[in-house]
Design goal:
With 349 residues, the protein is α/β, with parallel strands linked by helices. It has helices at 10-15, 35-39, 55-64, 82-94, 166-176, 183-195, 199-212, 217-233, 237-246, 255-267, 271-283, 300-312, 316-329, 334-346, and strands at residues 2-3, 26-28, 46-48, 70-72, 78-79, 101-110, 116-127, 133-135, 141-143, 148-157, 292-294. α2 (35-39) links the parallel β2 and β3 (46-48).
């Protein structure tokens, strides 16, 4: 792990994994709180790394301190639930040395019932002797190859901090120094601009990334959706709709894009077109091989939005049927439950 000022999160993370792993290695990049003091209650392998605005370098340093056959990496706000801790323990007992890496699910956001709504997949466990390296100074990734197996083990992200401009400032400092940006850097710099509401600058960098044509197809699709969000925030609806449809050049329509298009038309009160896109979101296949899936956009969300659209058109029976479809996926959602009570009153039940 690499950490800095994580006294709130680190104990919970380490508590969730301490009984499964054989060694815990903490690389501190300049904490001024009790992070290192708390880490000492779990391990004596704590090292300092002088921060050089390079996450990849810090992670590679952390890997250099590992001594076991396999390396598991985590962030301070990641945890293993009891169920996933047992799965990890089972994997550890059965893991063969002919495995080079194991990918795990990464649950990032959750529905009201606690089920994951948005998940990605990351290579979490790697064979040490392969000397795999981290690439990138911000939003770094672990470059792996060989025999990689997907597992159903999930790491749960429990982010407690509010968003900051830390990464944005690192990127801007790199730009000022003339540091070359890879296609991935351009995409993630655009993301940081977007997250910090610098929409015009984000639009420029998303366009730069897409027009260059060197990006990973999954990042291209994500960039189209995020670029559409920038246009939406600026009320530039035609451009938002155009870039959503450009995503279809990279793969079949995704539920996330269909829901964006539905919302764009809904915002303009074009309910018929909104309905067509929300309906499509309910029938397109979930791209299970994609590392980025927002399952809400294939299940309850488009059905709930269809309820809204049909209700506005005055077709209350149809609207109610879609609300019930949404309830099949997420019965405890407050809006779905509110609609159920509304329809009972409307139909005099």
């Amino acid at each position: 792990m690499i950490v800095k000022n994580e006294e709130q999160s680190l104990p919970k993370c380490l508590e969730s994994v301490k009984d499964v792993v054989d060694e815990i290695i903490i690389i501190d990049t300049g904490s001024t709180d009790r992070t290192k003091e708390l880490a000492k209650t779990f391990t004596d392998k704590i090292y300092d790394f002088e921060w050089i605005n390079d996450f990849g370098a810090a992670r590679n340093y952390s890997f250099s301190k590992a001594t076991k056959d396999f390396i598991l990496w985590l962030d301070a706000d990641d945890v293993f639930t009891d169920e996933n801790r047992e799965k990890l323990r089972t994997l550890k007992k059965t893991l063969s040395l002919d495995i080079d890496a194991v990918s795990m699910l990464y649950h990032l956001t959750f529905n009201e019932d606690g089920s994951p709504s948005f998940s990605s997949r990351r290579n979490r466990l790697v064979k040490r002797e392969n000397n795999f390296k981290w690439i990138g100074f911000v939003h770094e990734y672990l470059e792996v190859a060989g025999n990689i197996i997907p597992s159903d083990i999930a790491v749960v992200h429990q982010k407690e901090r509010h968003a900051s401009n830390r990464n944005l400032l690192i990127y801007e400092k790199a730009l000022e120094s003339g540091q070359p940006f890879s296609p991935r850097d351009k995409y993630y710099y655009a993301n940081e601009c977007n997250d910090n509401r610098k929409y015009e600058k984000a639009i420029y960098w998303y366009q730069y990334f897409l027009e260059e044509g060197l990006g990973w197809s999954e990042d291209n699709i994500q960039a189209c959706g995020k670029l559409a969000d920038c246009y939406l925030n600026l009320k530039r609806y035609p451009e938002a709709m155009d870039i959503c449809q450009k995503s279809f050049l990279y793969d079949a329509p995704r539920g996330e894009i269909c829901c964006r298009l539905g919302f764009l038309y809904l915002e303009q009160n074009d309910l018929v077109k909104a309905i067509s896109w929300y309906k499509l979101a309910t029938v397109v296949e979930i791209p299970e091989k994609s590392p980025f899936i927002n399952r809400s956009c294939y299940t309850w969300l488009p059905n709930l939005q269809l309820c809204l659209c049909y209700s506005r058109l005055g077709h209350q029976e149809i609207a109610r049927s879609y609300n019930e479809k949404a309830a099949e996926f997420l019965p405890n959602n407050s809006q779905i439950q509110y609609n159920q009570e509304f329809f009972k009153r409307y139909f005099g039940e």
